[in-house]
Amino acid sequence: MTQAERQPLLGLSSTPVFPDEVPDPEAAARPATNNPKTLTWTSAYILVISRVIGSGIFATPGSIVKSAGSVGLSLLIWGVGTVLAACGLAVSLEYGCMLPRSGGDKVYLEYTYPRPRFLASTLIAVQAVLLGFTASNCIVFAKYTFFAFNVEPTELQHKVLALGLITAVTIMHGFFLRTGIWVQNVLGWLKIFLVGAISLTGIWVILVRPPSETDASFGAEPGSVFSSWDSLWEDSNWSWNLLSTSLFKIIYSYAGLSNLNNVMNEVRDPVRTLKTVCPAALLTAGALYFLANISYFLVVPIEEIKNSGELVAALLFERLFGNQIGRTLLPLAIAISAAGNVMVVTFALARVNQEIARQGFLPWSKVLSSSRPFGAPLGGLIVHYIPSVLVIALPPQGDVYNFILDVEGYPGQFFSLAVTLGLLLLRYKEPDLPRPFKAWLPAVWLRVLISLVLLASPFFPPEGGKGDVGFFYATYAIVGTGVIVFGVLYWYVWTVLLPRWGGYHLEEEKAVTEDGATHTKLVRVHEF
Predict the structure, then answer these.
(1) Residue 319, by phi and psi: left (phi above 0), alpha (psi -120 to 50) or beta?
(2) DSSP assignment of 341-383
(3) Measured between alpha carbons, how far is residue 124 from residues 117, 252, 525 in Å?
(4) Which residues pair with 510 in a beta bridge?
């Protein structure tokens, strides 16, 4: 295989590319770009921490406790999930420092697996289009907003509010780029404050505030589950199927740790920033998540947590501060922080979609890859907007939140496994490749092992055949695997079968848009 064939479709070199340091002989011939490096260290930290601290810590503990059955097992699952997140972060840091450009896993898979040609790119493109949505946080935003105003919404009202949020965020990031970054920074700090408040309130209740009539009216003694070691583990459910879906939810809660990898072209001093921002975000989120869970268990009876759905944080505040502040102001603040998460996810995934369009895997690639006229990836935003709207509007309410998290998590393990094995492959095939950061080898192998275990988990039915949703327990695995299979079939038909029948092969034809962005148009070259 020639060196040219070895390169990924995005044109990466075999050494780290620092856009500010590498000479570009064609720069003078190109128009000025509208994509300046706008992300400072603080903005990058907020971009990561706002993505990490989304709806997860506010909405998933109830479902996790319901699956685990006990406080002790729930906390153990959160601890294991945090370790797995650290292992995944180590892999992302090595790749991101080695190949520092926007695109994240798309860039890494293309570089590592250039053969079969176009396969990695096609799978990433299919996942981005079919599963690249932010519906879960839009749903949490709607639920907490209606809870704050003491409204029992109809299914239509719930969907309309969630759709209104994703629409407003898309417009802001598409037409008012700097304003959108400023707003998501503000909401990011609000989110950190909220989780910190949750983390400290439970401890305050136990250590400072004496029991009151409010506690008695709720019918439970705060912190009773911590009275003995046996009560901590009482009713534990060790079904691997249920534990695996809980791990998917915790992994989802840490998914934003690699958010900065998606927008490296817009980060100032990208390698140094990546190496410091992401570990700082992991430490922040891990500490806050642990304290927040302790607070839930200290204040809210475990049976109420199990039946809380996505509203466990609202129950915490209502018990502590009553109906006025606890039921209205603080849940409304949680709704706003969920909106902030939608903003940062949309910001990052739109740029992944833009990279896919530049490569030519989407129709109208020249239009969708451009940052005109507002210096923002409007085309990538539209590609992100469409599946988000469909996922919010089409499924019925009920178990949709848990199902969304599971169906996002399962195919994600295929890509996690491929990326992690690819890192080991590159260390063997290209040991001299500069690596400003190198992941600890046991952490890399642990991530491989856990990915394999999570992929196998649907083959271990839960007791009674009932998972964390009301329908078939392995539906998420069927849908997730179906997305991967569809991607492989699409790749085979598009790049192998049709060219064979038509007597042509696909080649990349590179061009530059008016705003200086490079895009690749896939063209048919007929064989005579």
Answers:
(1) alpha
(2) HHHHHHHHHHHHHHHHHHHT-SSSHHHHT--TTTTS-HHHHHH
(3) 13, 18, 24
(4) 520
- Looking at per-residue pLDDT, the higher value among 205 and 438 belongs to 438
In the chain, what are the domain boundaries?
Answer: 3-17+49-462+469-526
Per-residue tokens: 511: 């061009």
Q: How many Å apart are CA 418 and CA 452, to the nearest integer?
A: 11
61-68 and 71-98 helices, crossing angle to 10°: 120
The pTM score is: 0.73
The sign of the dihedral angle between the CA atoms of 395, 398, 401, 402 is negative
Three-state secondary structure readout of 33-70 = CCCCCCECHHHHHHHHHHHHCCCHHHHCHHHHHHHHCC
What distance in Å separates the CA atoms of residue 308 and residue 315, rounded to the nearest whole number?
A: 8
pLDDT for 132 beyond 90:
no
Strand partners, 525: 505
Confirm if 504 and 514 have CB atoms less than 8 A apart.
no
- Which pair of structure tokens corresponds to residue 199? 């983390």
Residues in CB range of 319: below 8 A, 6 or more apart: 214, 215, 218, 299, 300, 326
How high is the pLDDT of residue 331? 80
Helix or strand run (H / E) with residue 525 = strand 518-526
> What percentage of the chain carries pLDDT values higher than 70?
79
CB 284, CB 118: distance < 8 Å: no
Q: How far apart are CA 252 and CA 165, in angstroms?
A: 21
CATH class given for the domain over 3-17+49-462+469-526: mainly alpha
Whether 136 contacts 401, CB under 8 Å: yes
> Which two tokens mark 256?
């934003």
